[in-house]
Amino acid sequence: MKSWILSLLVGLLAGGIYALLGTRSPAPPVIALLGLFGMLVGEQLVPITRRLLARQPLTMAWFRHECVPKISGTPQPEPPDAPPRRD
């Protein structure tokens, strides 16, 4: 949660700087967000390609464990045989 707040604060600071300089944001918000999403998904093409070149299976379990947390920002799921966490 701390990184979300920091990100919001930096975004507000950047917006304030744009306003003080009298310029507009370089991209409309929707286009900028789609570009960021594309970057996150594109980052996962490298590990997928490496896995395919190594002739390792590309399973949904592997994708959910390795790629989905990096795209969505959620923590990696625990392996099924891991002991329960005590937070």
UniProtKB/TrEMBL annotation:
Pfam families according to UniProt: DUF1427
Transmembrane segments: 29-46
UniProt KW keywords: Membrane, Transmembrane, Transmembrane helix
InterPro entries in UniProt: DUF1427, XapX_domain
Record carries keyword Transmembrane: yes
NCBIfam families attached to this UniProt entry: XapX (TIGR03510)
Record-given protein name: XapX domain-containing protein
Originating species: Kosakonia sacchari
